[in-house]
Amino acid sequence: MKKELSSKEFCKHVAKHVGNTLKLLRRQRGLTAKELSLELEVSVQQLIKYEAGLNRISLGRLLMVCNYFQYNITDFIQDICTSLDIAIDANKTSGKFPKLVNITKLSIAELNIINQLINTITKEK
Question: Average pLDDT in the 70-77 region?
Answer without folding.
Answer: 83
